[in-house]
Amino acid sequence: MSFYEKVANIDRRVIFLLIGLAVAIPIIFTVRFPGFPTPMVQEIFDLVENLPAGSKVLVSFDYDPASEPELQPMATAWMRQCIERGFRIYIMALWPIGQDMARLTVDQLKRDIAEKERLTGKKVPFEYGVNYVDLGYKSGAQGVINVVLTDFEKMYPTDSTNQALSSIPMMSDTKSLKDLDLIISISAGTPGLKEWIQFGADPAGVKIIGGSTAVQAPLLYPYYPKQLSGQLGGLKTAAEYEKLMGDRYPQYSDIKDNKGRIRMGAQAIAHIVIMLFIVVGNITFFIDRRRGKRG
Questions:
Q1: Which residue stretches of the chain have pLDDT < 50?
Q2: Taken in order 53, 167, 94, 70, is the CA torsion positive or negative?
Q3: How far is 167 from 170, CA to CA, in rounded Å?
Q4: pTM
């Protein structure tokens, strides 16, 4: 069998193997490509960066492990930025598993902080009840948003640790959504960013940004820029945001937890391999047709 015949009749298992290697090798060796942030990503980054220290930011984890590859890098990057800027962080979840995703993110932040303190010898403020609070998950979708629009304590008499909300220091001057400076929803569907816009941020007069899966993003662009100050849509924008974080805060520039950039590298190489197979397949198709082997 000639080389051409081998290529034209390549076993599909070889294709699957090469695609698998194209994904696995960049992840194992943490391959990253240079990032060039799009205007909206830069706009979102600047918005968060320009908020004054002490600003009150609500972060809603509205996704589950199925969307973790796209959305977790966004959540981690935003939470890191909030800590670096000295914001007070209010954590919520409209999805049951969202509260677990929030805990995983907080655990990552604690590791980041421990490493930074080790390297710099400086204490990083991240005390529960003072710098951040986890309200946890409540069922009710937009109904939850409708209640916290006017009264957090009515919906959350206690936080996720069963501590009375009235006893938490950072809740003393935060009674409702109207007291916040920014809302961030990391959303994989409904309820999520759309509901936060319609029932939360817009009625409260509070700016909102969000992150969504790539397939969901087009449904939310109509809200930009009047009701939505910006959104990250899919893994590519998550990687771009991580690049901006690394440029602004060097400790995040080259760490293995920059999963957005690493996964984007694997995705890019896999796409190149797929395109090569498409090109080769088309070439063999036209050669065979010219030879009269195909109709």
A1: 295
A2: positive
A3: 9
A4: 0.85
